[in-house]
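User: Hi! I have a protein structure encoded as tokens and I'd like to know what sequence might fold into it. I'm fairly new to this, so please keep things simple.
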């Protein structure tokens, strides 16, 4: 009986090592950048309908991203932008199966933010999971040639 239990424990230990996500398959775990994020905006917001960039910080009311746009001349424009949850229609995170857009109240058309648990998960995938201090945010803005963060708002 002891030999059977020992074999069972050995098989369970070996199989546990092979189950679950692996660091060599998860690109975000091997680099300092935040996860690549693609956001489809709701109708009526000021952008072209789709944003893409690096997730810098998860905030209570939205996401702070380093947005990038490829222009017609193939140059890439970068800027810091804040996207409120109420502006988001659909959000994709590179290699993740996580939906963080809040729910809409059909009576008031007001949006609620994602759950605290979803924001915690997402925060761990951002470049600054501890949050951005004001001096650091000012340095990032200066590096991008901005005075303030662009806020995505209604037209």
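Assistant: Happy to help. Inverse folding works backwards from shape to sequence: for each of the 155 positions I chose a residue that suits the local structure. Here it is:
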């Amino acid at each position: 009986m002891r030999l059977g239990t020992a074999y069972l424990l050995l098989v369970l230990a070996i199989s546990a090592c092979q189950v679950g996500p692996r660091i060599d398959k998860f690109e975000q775990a091997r680099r300092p950048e935040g996860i690549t994020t693609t956001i489809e905006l709701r109708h009526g917001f000021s952008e072209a309908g789709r944003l893409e960039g690096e997730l810098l910080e998860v905030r209570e009311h939205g996401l702070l991203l380093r947005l990038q746009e490829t222009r017609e001349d193939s140059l890439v424009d970068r800027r810091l932008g804040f996207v409120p949850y109420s502006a988001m229609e659909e959000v994709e995170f590179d290699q993740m199966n996580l939906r963080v857009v809040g729910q809409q109240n059909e009576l008031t058309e007001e949006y609620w933010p994602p759950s605290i648990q979803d924001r915690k998960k997402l925060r761990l995938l951002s470049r600054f999971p501890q949050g951005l201090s004001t001096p650091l945010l000012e340095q990032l803005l200066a590096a991008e040639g901005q005075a303030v963060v662009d806020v995505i708002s209604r037209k």
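A useful reference point when you look it over: Helices lie at 2-18, 116-124, 134-144. Feel free to ask if any position seems puzzling.
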